[in-house]
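Hi there,

I know you've been waiting on this one. I reran it after we fixed the sequence typo, so this is the corrected version. Both the input and the resulting structure follow.
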Amino acid sequence: MVVQAIIEIVKHYAQGEITNFIKVWTLVFASLSYCFFLSKTLPTGFPRLLAISPAIILNLILPLTLHTMHLGGSSAFFLAWLANFKLIMLAFGHGPLSDPSISLPKFAAFACLPIKSNSDFPSRGLKSIWNYLAKALLICLFLKLYDYTDLVHPKLTWLLYFLHIYCGLEIILAVAGGIAGALIGVELEPQFDEPYLSSSLHDFWGRRWNIMVSKILRPTVYKPVLDFSAPITGRRWAHFPAILASFFVSGLMHELIFYYLGRRRPSGELTAFFVLHGVCLGAEVAVKKAVKGRWGVPRVLAGPLTMGFVLATSFWLFFPEFLRCNAIEKAFGEYAAVEAFLRDVTYALASKSIHNTTNTIV
């Protein structure tokens, strides 16, 4: 039977990873169900946080059972970062999970996915299918260009990595959005808004790059630090420690995600990268407040300067850690496995078709 042949092919290439992936997300749904029903009975505050903490710890452990870039890396981001921060907000009665009218399936989806909290159907929605197809074709082009990286400067290869990460994240979120829409009728919010068009660091980090992270850090880190700092520094300058704390936490979370990817001890470079950007963003905000709109860098210059700074600091502090966790090698191995899987499935289907045609003729 051709179906049996395809099942054997899937078993051969999955090598337990897909099985582990299913187990992980089954446990995640069970733990989120526990949090859902617990939030209906236990009052907000530290008692609820203590009761929810086993689910938070489980979300930190489960990604360790996955070893691929695409399944493991995306699961680590959704669980260790998005879900855990939203569960912390739930403990204190904040965030999208605190909506008393939310159903269990939507509770689980809102916990792990970047879905707007104020509407089941975000106004912008995901981008067009052609946008994602274009990015998929770009990834195929990048994979081909990697064969010639020995002929170009290493920094150009790192630029390809930057574009590869950007396109890959957009496609992964689009796939997750399609699944969420098919199962429970919700849509994901786009997480990138053409970041290469950024005109400032505030524009890049706050409005264009990984938008959900900004929305998660604002209520969990930025606002508490802002409220704590305001009586000490005054409201005018309280933004600086709040910005710095947000970027510091982002750096720590990136260290954690990269640990899941490479199982290597954190070097601190990722934290340094985000702290540096936090300091520069704080300085940018301070300068803008000081000049009060009387002077500014023309957008035609601000855009290249912003992206030049992001890329230069990425080459210095971000990409070396990215390369040390062997992310590219793992991704290539997974692409090769998918290609071989599709080739074998196509061969199995073609063999069955030829067999049926031969029987018909005979």
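Quick highlight: The longest helix spans residues 327-361.

Best,
R. S.
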